[in-house]
Amino acid sequence: MADIYNFNKHIGNIIKQNLHDNGFRKNGNHFTRNFNDLVEDIFIHSHYGSWALINKEFYINIIITKDNKWVNYIRIPNKPSRDKPNMYDDYYNRNINEKNNFNKDQEEIFHKYTRDLMWEYKDEDELINSFTKASDILEKYGLKYIGKVEQRILEDSEIKKDKFLDIYNEIFTWSHRGFGYMF
Fold first, then answer.
1. Tens digit of pLDDT for each residue in 36-65?
2. Number of CB atoms found within 10 A of residue 66's CB
3. Cα–Cα distance, 114 to 180 (Å, whole number)
4. HEC string of the chain?
5. Inter-residue contact 166 to 51 (CB < 8 Å)
6. How far apart are CA 58 and CA 133, in angstroms?
């Protein structure tokens, strides 16, 4: 797909410098850094749905891996998000080929929550503004989150999914319960 509104150019111009100054290297839409035996990846995931002619959107993911296995995965929301629906974890922990069993109300709640995690833009100016805001959020909160996760792993080599929830809640208070999907 074509680079709508110079998406890749603006990642390089707006987000790259901030992350580069903090030791991250850019590879496409991924910014990675090694810390001991961890690989830290900030991934700006562009998403073009079937309605891409109207709106464009992207997600900001922070992924931390150890020995090629995910240790932690979060999505940073653009705006305050509603409480994470109970079925959200079930959906992502199910077998990938398994259909979800949501009723209509659950499906609507699920999709509204997922929409809260997206960064939307309609034109190049909105994209530039979103990347500027995203860069600020990554600098103020994302890098702090990664640093505390690093510290926690150094202190306790046993890694459990829920072990980072308190760090997330402490750092991302700006987003209310801005709890993106956390693995």
1. 888 999 999 887 654 445 568 888 988 888
2. 16
3. 8
4. CCCHHHHHHHHHHHHHHHHHCCCCEEECCEEEEEECCEEEEEEEEEECCCCCCCCEEEEEEEEEEECCEEEEEEECCCCCECCCCCHHHHHHHCCCCCCCCCCHHHHHHHHHHHHHCCEEECCHHHHHHHHHHHHHHHHHHHHHHHHHHHHHHHHCCCCCHHHHHHHHHHHHHHHECCCCCCC
5. no
6. 13
| pLDDT at residue 103, as a whole number | 83
| Contact indicator for 139, 20 with CB cutoff of 8 Å | no
Candidates 181, 172, 70; CA nearest to 115 is 181
| pLDDT number for residue 77 | 76
Q: Give the tokens for residue 50.
A: 């079937």
The two three-digit tokens of residue 35, written as one number:
């810390």
